[in-house]
Each structure stands twice: as structure tokens, then as C-alpha cells.
TrEMBL record:
Name of the protein in its database record: Fucosyltransferase
Biological process annotations from GO: cell wall biogenesis; cell wall organization; xyloglucan biosynthetic process
Transmembrane segments: 24-45
One Pfam match: XG_FTase
Species assigned in the record: Miscanthus lutarioriparius
Lineage: Eukaryota, Viridiplantae, Streptophyta, Embryophyta, Tracheophyta
Length: 566
């Protein structure tokens, strides 16, 4: 039998498949570690050492994982999951592009999370259509051709400055204005991106409120950030009353029914799709309005809504949307995983917390608590609702208040991640499970990354922590979220799993039932139009097509569902 030294020498020989410089000294240590591990497992079979597996102290990570490459290699440590560490390393090699959703070729160091999220996230059960992949690659070409610092962009900017009556050409633009809280901003960027794909427009995002501090660039070899010298300097102040808005121009009869303009055609139009928009603004979702907007080279969008469901009601987009998303309830799931990669600073917040507190548990439960109340909590009825939901749906085990210790043969561990602006809920639930054993002997640990007390969307670190907590929540095996919360919608959409949604309490009483599992993983459009563009009268837009229904948590809201699952 060859000695470890002989094996090491053979591996270093030029003809050996692993004979690369730098691995000779590692292999003897690796084999010795394997032998020691085998002996330990035999001695401690069934114990905690066997359950955790063996750690290869000092071994070369590339030897164990198969090496790395320039597009998301494995030279940085992943989640500490001793038993499955090597399996996870090979998993990220197989699916670091998320089934083709992501484009290869990015510098892995500029955005570590892009190609390493597969180490932390379960493989999605939702298939991606080949047509969506084709359109994403086409859109990346458009963004590169027409994005900032290109000749096409410079020409378009000069025409915009001139204010002349210009025609839409090969490079047309949609500018997203940063507005509202982080959850709303993420949902509106995704909505704007889908609209940009449907209308072949370059998406440029306003860098206000730290967009570049939160998200990596999603498109290869270009930037999606709107340059700071954008000539329409007042665009951040546009609102419902701005005369540049499409709705106000229709109201003033500056646009004729055939789409022509009274006077010179403007070089840009403002789209006001925020929660306070009026009936004229809502005409954006009508077919004739889309025909008008096709002629405008620059559109500036301000919204705090996930308006994707109403795009599915516009006739000219329905065939394209069906090809992009044969499964209707995965729009944000796919677009969110494509667009939103945490920057290295945020990724550090995520991975340090995950590896320290979440990685080793048998099961991860995420609980997101959002209270819409002007007074400071914690509130007893909210705590009662959380416990009623988690205990009734058997997401948490019952406690035993009679016995000090419960002994079982097979102890499972469950980690509960709680996100809330208030620490009171976490402290009281944690204490309950510390002071009493669980009925089934399950070991429960509770963690809350931060408690900011109130939302402050203008602070850089506040937004970074919020984004980190959204992402950590999305890594849960099971999740409980709060009604009306865009924070919860984003976590749910990224996870790809149906959450248990806690209904909004009324009169500070616990709803009955306290929660239910959602019918789809899509976010809710909180302020949809109720207008039939064909008949030109009000209608229930939640009953026009089978795949657009009213939301569980907001009776007037709209969300996409997959009719095959209902």
C-alpha cells in the first residue's frame, strides 16, 4: 500500500491529473485527517462528532472543492455546514448562474454574492423559461449598447437637452426615481425592469438613498446607475401635480386620442404611479396609453407600488408575458434573483450572521413582525398573534410548563430568526422557550440581528441592515410574514416559498385565524386601478383574468397567482 508521502509525490508528478504546484504539502495532511476522521466516527458513532462530521484543518480548500475560477470561484469560505460542506461547494459550481438566470463574466471580487448565493440558498423549485433567458441576454446587450458613457447615450442626452421634437430610436430610456422605503424600492425596480423589457427600454436607476451601497450592478460591462449630470435636474421633485406627467397632459388635453400632441412632442414624460396617483395617471395601464408612450424616448418613473399585476392586463403585453412567465406567480422570484445582489459590505453582514447563528440548525424559521401603529410597542395582541400562528400551524413546538426537563432520544435543533423594529417580541418569545422545555424536546434558539425602533430609510447603515435582514429571512426554510409589509414580500419572493401571512389586526385584537399560507409567492399591488379600458368604466380588475386575484392581506390589492396550483 503506498504511503501518504508516496501519494503526495505521485500527485506532484507532471502527468498526474492533480499535479499542480502548491498541493504536494496539502495531500498528506488531508489523508491523515481522513484517517483520523474515520477513527473518530467509529468511536463516536451516533454522537455529536459524527453528526457534525470532520473538519479538515489546514487542508487546501481548492483540493476539497474542486478549485475556483474567475467567475465566482470557491476561494472564499461558504456557510459552515460541516457534514455537507463539500456537497455545497460542488452545488455552487453547478448552479452559480442560477439555472442560466445570471450572465457569466463578471469580476467575482466586485460582487462576491452574485455567484456565491447558491452556497446559502436552496435550489429553486420554480423553472425558468428559456424565453426569459433569451430576453435577459438581449436586454443585457441593449444596456451595454445604450448605457452611460456610450456614444448612443451621449447622443440621446444631447437630444434631451435640446428639447427638440425627437423620435424614439434604437436607444430609449426608463429612469427610475428612488422613492419610499427599501422594500418598496426593490419592488418598484423589479416592476420598472419588467416594463423596460416589454418596451425595449434601457433601465437607469436613481442612485439616491444609497442604491449603489446596497446592490451590485446587474448588467455586465455597463452601469445601471443614472449619471449625476442627468440634465433633467428637477426629476427627483416630480409629483402628482407636475405638468410633465402623462396624467396631467391627458387631463389638459395636450395629447390627442390618436397619440399626437398639441404643440411639439416632448422629449420626455413623467409617469406618476405612486399610491396617491389619480384616475388620469392610472390610464398608464390602458392599451392606448402604451401606444402613446412608445413615441417618447425618455420616461421618468416614480412609484412605491409593485405594479406588475396590472401589466398582465394590458392586451399588447399578454402574449409576451405568457412566454416570459408560463408560471405566472414567479415574476418577482426570477427578476429579484437576477437584479438584486448584495454589495460586498452587505454580503459581509449577511454571511457573518448566517455562519455564526443560523448555519448549523436542522431547521430555520423566519418571523417578520411589522406593526403599523403610531404608538411604540411591543403590543400584547401582536405577541399573541405571532404565538397563535406559529403554534397552531406547528411551526414552533408547544412548551411544557410542568416539567423542568424533557428527554428525547433524537434532539433536533431549530433556529428562529426574528426581524422587527422592536426587540420586545424577540425577548419575550426567547424567554418563554428558555424558561420552559418544549414538549417534543426540540432545542430552539432565537436571534434578532437589529432593532432600529423606527424606520429611517434615508440612513445608509439602516438600509444596509434592512437589506441584510430581508436576505437572511429569505434563507429560512419556513417563514411567517406580516400583512401589508413590502419587507416581507421581498423576502418571500426571493425565497421562492409560500409564507404564512399574519393578517393585520383590527382594534388591537388577534385576527381569527391569525394567519394563513399565501396562495402565491408574488407581492401584492397595493393601489391598482379599477378601470376597464375597453368599456371606459369602473370594474373589478381582480376578476378580469384567472391569474390576477385579490391579495390575502389587502382585499382591494392585486397579485399574480398560478391557476394550476389553485
Amino acid at each position: 500500500m503506498p504511503t501518504p508521502q508516496a501519494v503526495g509525490e505521485a500527485a506532484s508528478a507532471p502527468g498526474h491529473p492533480h499535479g499542480r504546484k502548491g498541493r504536494v504539502a496539502v495531500l498528506p495532511l488531508s489523508i491523515a485527517a481522513l484517517v483520523a476522521c474515520g477513527v473518530m466516527l467509529l468511536l463516536l458513532a451516533g454522537g455529536s462528532a459524527a453528526r457534525r462530521g470532520c473538519q479538515f484543518s489546514g487542508a487546501d480548500r481548492t483540493t476539497l472543492s474542486g478549485g475556483g475560477d474567475d467567475r465566482g470561484g470557491l476561494d472564499q469560505a461558504g456557510p459552515r455546514d460541516g457534514e455537507h460542506g463539500t456537497m455545497l461547494s460542488s452545488k455552487v459550481q453547478r448552479d452559480r448562474l442560477i439555472g442560466g438566470l445570471l450572465a457569466p463574466g463578471f469580476d467575482k471580487h466586485s460582487c462576491i454574492s452574485r455567484y456565491r448565493s447558491a452556497l446559502y440558498r436552496k435550489e429553486s423549485p420554480h423553472l425558468i423559461s428559456t424565453y426569459l433567458l433569451e430576453r435577459l441576454r438581449e436586454h443585457e446587450v441593449l444596456q451595454k449598447k445604450c448605457g452611460p458613457n456610450t456614444e448612443s447615450y451621449k447622443k440621446a442626452i444631447e437630444q434631451l437637452k435640446s428639447g427638440q421634437d425627437i423620435m424614439a430610436g434604437d436607444c430609449n430610456y426608463l429612469v427610475w426615481v428612488s422613492y419610499s422605503g427599501l422594500g418598496n424600492r426593490i419592488l418598484t425596480i423589479a416592476s420598472a425592469f419588467l416594463y423596460a423589457i416589454l418596451t425595449n427600454r434601457v433601465l437607469l436607476v436613481d442612485g439616491d438613498k444609497g442604491t449603489a451601497d446596497l446592490f451590485c450592478e446587474p448588467f455586465p460591462e455597463t452601469s445601471w446607475l443614472l449619471p449625476p449630470d442627468f440634465p433633467i435636474v428637477q426629476f427627483k421633485n416630480f409629483s402628482i401635480g407636475s405638468p410633465e406627467s402623462y396624467g396631467n397632459m391627458v387631463k389638459a388635453e395636450a395629447i390627442h386620442s390618436d397619440g399626437s400632441f398639441k404643440g411639439p412632442k416632448p422629449a420626455f414624460l413623467y409617469l406618476h404611479l405612486a399610491h396617491d396617483y389619480d384616475d388620469y395617471d392610472k390610464l398608464f395601464f390602458c392599451e392606448h396609453s402604451q401606444q402613446h408612450l412608445q413615441k417618447i424616448p425618455w420616461l421618468i418613473l416614480r412609484s412605491d407600488n409593485y405594479f406588475v399585476p396590472s401589466l398582465f392586463l394590458i392586451p399588447s403585453y399578454q402574449e409576451e408575458l405568457t412566454r416570459l412567465f408560463p408560471q405566472k406567480d414567479v415574476v418577482f422570484h426570477h427578476l429579484g434573483r437576477y437584479l438584486f445582489h448584495p454589495t460586498n459590505v452587505v454580503w459581509g453582514l449577511i454571511t457573518r450572521y448566517y455562519d455564526s447563528y443560523l448555519a448549523r440548525a436542522d431547521e430555520k424559521l423566519g418571523i417578520q413582525i411589522r406593526v403599523f401603529d403610531t404608538e411604540t410597542g411591543p403590543f400584547q395582541h401582536v405577541l399573541d398573534q405571532v404565538l397563535d400562528c406559529t403554534l397552531k400551524e406547528k411551526l414552533l413546538p408547544e412548551i411544557n410548563a410542568q416539567q423542568p426537563i424533557i428527554s428525547t432520544g433524537n434532539i433536533r435543533s431549530k433556529v428562529v430568526l426574528i426581524t422587527s423594529l422592536n426587540s420586545g417580541y424577540y425577548e419575550r418569545i426567547r424567554n418563554m422557550y428558555w424558561e420552559h422545555p418544549t414538549e417534543n424536546g426540540e432545542i430552539i434558539s432565537f436571534h434578532q440581528p437589529s432593532h432600529e425602533e423606527h424606520q429611517d430609510s434615508d440612513k445608509k447603515m439602516h438600509n444596509m441592515k434592512a437589506w441584510a435582514e430581508i436576505y437572511l429571512l429569505s434563507l429560512s426554510d419556513v417563514m411567517v410574514t406580516s400583512a401589508w409589509s413590502t419587507f416581507g414580500y421581498v423576502a418571500q419572493g426571493l425565497s421562492g416559498s409560500k409564507t404564512w401571512l399574519m393578517f393585520k389586526p383590527e382594534n388591537r385584537t388577534v385576527p381569527n385565524p391569525p394567519c394563513r399560507q399565501v396562495m402565491s409567492i408574488e407581492p401584492c399591488f397595493h393601489a391598482p386601478p379599477f378601470y376597464d379600458c375597453k368599456t371606459r368604466r369602473g370594474t373589478d380588475t381582480g376578476k378580469l383574468v384567472p391569474h390576477v386575484r385579490h391579495c390575502e392581506d389587502m382585499s382591494w390589492g392585486l397579485k399574480l397567482v398560478d391557476t394550476g396550483e389553485l
